[in-house]
Amino acid sequence: MWVFTYKFDEDGYLTKFKARLVVRGDLQQIYEDTYAATLAARIFRFLVALMAAFGLKAFQYDVLNAFLNAKVDRKIYVQTPESYVDQFGPLLRLWRALYGLKEAPLLWYNDLCTSLRKMGLKPVPGIPCLFTNEKLIVFFYVDDIVVLVRPEDLAAHEEFERALKDRYEIRCLGKLGWFLGIRVVRDEEQGKVWLLQDSFVDKVAANFKLQKKSGRYPATPLNEGLGPSDEEPNAELTKEFQSLTGSLAFISCITRPDVAKAHSVLAQHLQNPNQKHLAAAKHVWEYLIGTQYYAICATALRTESASYITEGEANEAGVEPLFFGASDAAFADNLETRRSSHGFMFKLYGMPIDWKATVQRSVTKSTTEAELMALSIAGAEMEWWQRAFKNVKFELEFTPQLLCDNTATVDIVTKREDRLQTKLRHVDTHQMWLRQEVEQKRIQVNWVPTDQMPADGLTKVLPRQKHESSVKQLGLEDIRSIITPRENKEAEKGVKLSAWN
Length: 501
Fold this sequence. Notes:
This protein is 34% helix and 21% strand. The protein is an alpha+beta fold. It has a six-stranded antiparallel sheet with strand order 6-7-8-9-3-10, with helices on one face. The chain has a five-stranded antiparallel sheet with strand order 11-12-13-14-20. A five-stranded mixed sheet has the order 17-16-15-18-19. It comes from Pyrenophora tritici-repentis.
């Protein structure tokens, strides 16, 4: 069948009308695995942090008609498009991974991975879509490819570009400026890189007719918690609420940790929302419209001699550690189920690279138990990051710290206090695992006051002053003043959007 689309440039101007023949994959019966891995958002943020910290150059490429480069690995026959039946007959055998084919993404993924291996790159264990060698870091999302390289290794990049052009038809997009609808702003003199999704906010505002106001916008994402609805379901209202909340899920997972808690609250009411829930969802988006130039930032930590400072020097200077995590919990705050909210976040070179705001799966009986479970989940995530760092040869020379604002939990984990006596086996398991990891110096758990807890805004709805403080602790900056007028014009236009896994 034919699919007709419009193509726009980054300024939002129509560049061409596009017609593409696609396969009716919805009519396929296939029982093999068709999953094609994609780059995780947290890995993208991690790589951007490295780009800022070590002054790496970033170049971007787009493979044209990417799927058609992959060959089909079995016999597949398709109906000939109506206008070509007289010329080719009623059936055609498919030799290439035509768009629409269920296995087409996987076939393309395998083809690209094979090509990168032939170019001398090796896949990073446990991290899909990331390849490295001694001089290059290459990552991709479907047909969008980015290369990171040190300034002194630009010759290796040029060689890679030639090899890529020999294998595929590509567009060279120059320095990394946009990636899947995410704007990348860089100040090489200051060693800073910002990520923001201002254009996505504009797109959602236009789609849902959320007009920009001339006055003040909401100062916080939510003013209060939300309870369940006892009203009759309304299909139209439910659809609008689910669409707003789904869009919020995207931005809260990519560049806006300050609305992660708001999304967690709204997502608990997807089945039967009422007008109050819909108003709350619109309130969050009005907050995002007012703060659309908030960006997460990575900074290269340097001394006056321009050399990178060590972990010890960072602590002495009173700045954040190069890499650390924070965990928090709100005990039994869900009035319907009495489950506790918990959240964690991890920062690398000032950029929040990983965060989560959710509700614990089981009910705990005390604040300490809730904090222990949250800390254990964050601890496991921290060890995952340490393994990921080693796999890309970015090894920490110190034991990373995990922050917690509950003194009883910290004392139990660090064995300054006797083991918590609990009959809840799952809590006891978390407790014993944490004590083991701290004892073996794989992680260190430190206490921090609640007003200095970066994860506090991931577990509760905060009043205005505390929310503003939380925004800074989460690593967000308002960069409206450093974006040029041309970039502001681009931000008001549509750009390429996608979904992360």
